[in-house]
Amino acid sequence: MPVKKPRRFDQISPAANFLLSLLTGVIAMACIFPFLFVVIISFTNEKSLASNGYRIIPKEWSLEAYHYIFRTGEALLRSYGVTIFVTVVGTLLSLVIITLYAYAISQRSFKYRRLFSFFAIFTMLFNGGMVPTFIVVTQLLNMKDTIWALIMPMLVNAFYILIMRTFFSTMVPTAIIESGKIDGASELQTFIRLVLPLSLPGIATIGLFNTLGYWNDWFNALLYIDSPNLVPLQSMLMRIETSMQFIMQNSTNAAISTSILQNMPQDTSRMAMVVLATGPIVLAYPFFQRYFVQGLTIGAVKE
Question: The pTM is what?
Answer without folding.
Answer: 0.76
